Amino acid sequence: MGTVETKEEVTFKLNGIDVTVPKGTTVMAAAKREKVAIPHFCWHPGLSVAGVCRFCMVKVKGRPKLEISCNLEATPGMEVDTVSDEVKDSHKWALEFHLANHPLDCPICDQAGECGLQKYYMSVGKYNSQMTEEKVLKPKALDVGDKLVLDTERCILCSRCVRFENEVTKTGGLGIFDRGDRAIIGTYGDEKITHNYQENLVDICPVGAFTSKEFRFKQRVWFLKEKSSICPGCSTGCAVSIHAKPEMETYFRVKPRYDKKVNGHWMCDKGREILSGLDKKERLENSYLQDQDEFSTCERPDMINHLNSLLSRFRGKKISLLVSAQYTNEEYERLFSFFVEKMGVRSIFQWRSKEEKLNDFDGILLRGDRNPNTRGLLDALRKFHILKEVENEFEACLTSSSDLIFAFSPLLSSSFSSFEEDLARLSKLKSCVCLFTTSYQARDYIGFNSLIPLVSFPEKTGHYTNYKGEKRELEGAYPSFIHEGFDVCELVNELDSNIKASLRA
Amino acid sequence: MGVIKVPLPPQDTNVFQAAWGYITTILKGLFVTKMILVKQLFKLEKTETIEWPEEPADYGPRFKGKHFLTKRDDGNVRCTACFLCATACPADCIYIEAGEHKSKTIEKYPVRFEIDILRCVFCGFCEEACPVDAIRLGPEYIMLPADGTKWVYTKEYLVARTNLNGGIQSIKDEEEKHPEVTSLTHESKHHRSLVKHGKH
């Protein structure tokens, strides 16, 4: 690993400036911390040091040859130089040799735009190649996993993927075969990579050797916008960035961000499926209202008026909240401060999947609790003096004989195996049910009093509290392409102000 | 270069003298025009006017008109859906949807390739950006489509419309084709690329 946690510190000179780092830190890690760019391919902060790409050469004063900085421990008094002509020349030639057998695939390669070779060619490249040898051709577009396509020709043999398989997932599914210029990365025999962390290989591959089947050829990366968010796939709550093209109203991919305390550098493939229900055609786009045997769309103000009239009609009767654990802390707080404090609602039920195994854990990241904010929900309830444990109270809600139920459905129906079944049962209730949802499936069930479309997690800001109690922010919000969609906080604010006005009147 | 000598603006305040200067100059100019008219009336000189559309206009081979997509030697579209034309396009008029080709030697090809010709400004950047000579701006300058509705040119129209006589072959095809390599053994040394190193 890049850094070792010790209290001892060493001070050395990096390009003439004193740098103090914990003992055991490599020059590469120290340079990264100091934002000094040393070109590298094989070094990855989340993996062991391999030192195979020979690209990160630096000059140490007093030593005859250049050394690789990724495997060079900083020692007191060391004077490291990363910018002299000698060092730059070595970078240039190292890249030249990496490009010796690399095909000119950039036009059809998904990595183009975020490729290490392209990036370094522009910054340290040798623009006039002196190679006269012909390129070695290798197998292309190999199917090596459920989600992976391998192009051995583009590979520069940095061995990041091999180390990932050995160290992180401990499956050891990849190896380097053959020797010299015919060495290729591959799986053993006809075996396929099947674990739940495959797409990390695509992320760590500095070139386009591994490409994701899911994202393959969908879009060029330079068209995508990137916003920081939190994965709502399970209670680990990995830090992710969501890549989208807002003008096309499409979300394209999810990539992990580094968060030391939560997910490190990785995320699971289940977490990358969170975008599956976010297409416009799978979302509830309009408010729906049950109006004298007719289920029809209505405008936003009409829906707010309707909810207001419902609240005043059922004043004094039994109102219940059925809430899933997929909303943000802010939304829970606003919701409960209105319903519990203003409206005096005491019956709040948790809506969870019937088949969830709470204590499941795959040993790396994925947890059995497929809701991002279970902890946040309980914390918010505790704040309003409602003490609860994690449990599925859907049945209890059905039998509670409430007159009016506000049901806040899960935003990720994909992680909710019994979602449709629950919807069917909820719609058959005799009580008046208002369903707040993002999913278009709700339209198929007749019997709801009203359907309120919500914006989903990439379109809102807020916080999730993960299973450990780490509070993380959903920073970036894309403009929602569900124009009629409600933000829970805004909706409750409007209801609140209307109630106040009606009380005054 | 012909120079017409124009009298200097009158220095004194004699209005008639000043007007005389102007009138003579205008008459000289009109004389030149009328002489050309007379010459052309009696067919002593050729007129430059083209009676389009009765008479076809010839714009020369380098004219950047209506786009077309070139073909591979096997007749498929040459485009590899690299999106470089769409990236370079200042009018944002190219829409591409890429797909996986069943042949591993091609890999990527455009499922849809559409040009919104009403947005196009005929700058020719798409042609410049294309790495495989797949899109060119041809000599056709009549943009009226056959049925008057198709202002978005589809891939099929761009590859093989009647004016193209069955399509035009790309100059970059066979020389850069990648043979399919299934396994890499010591016998397969002949899988050496024909591509010579130049500039990367």
What's this, in brief?
The complex is a heterodimer of chains A (505) and B (200). By secondary structure, chain A is of the alpha+beta class.
Q: How does this model look, in words?
A:
The complex is a heterodimer of chains A (505) and B (200). Chain A is α+β, with helices and mostly antiparallel strands and 505 residues long. Chain A folds into three domains: 9-98, Ubiquitin-like (UB roll) (Roll); 100-223, Alpha-Beta Plaits (2-Layer Sandwich), CATH 3.30.70.20; 280-504, Rossmann fold, CATH 3.40.50. Chain A has helices at residues 27-33, 85-98, 116-124, 160-167, 199-204, 300-313, 329-342, 374-383, 394-398, 419-427, 488-504, and strands at 9-14, 17-22, 57-60, 67-68, 79-81, 142-143, 148-150, 174-177, 184-187, 210-212, 225-230, 239-245, 250-256, 287-291, 294-298, 319-324, 347-351, 404-408, 432-437, 450-453, 462-465, 471-474. In chain A, the strands form six sheets. A seven-stranded mixed β-sheet of chain A has the order 15-14-20-19-18-16-17. Chain B is of the alpha+beta class and 200 residues long. Chain B has a domain at 67-193: 2-Layer Sandwich (Alpha-Beta Plaits), CATH 3.30.70. Chain B is 21% helix and 12% strand. In chain B, strand 2 and strand 3 form a beta hairpin. The longest helix of chain B is centred in the first third of the chain and has 27 residues, at 15-41. The radius of gyration of chain B is 29 Å and the shape is elongated. Chain B starts with 14 loop residues before the first helix and ends in a 41-residue tail after the last helix. Residues 185-200 of chain B have low confidence and may be disordered. The chains are: A alpha+beta (505), B alpha+beta (200). At the A-B interface, loops of A face strand 2 of B.
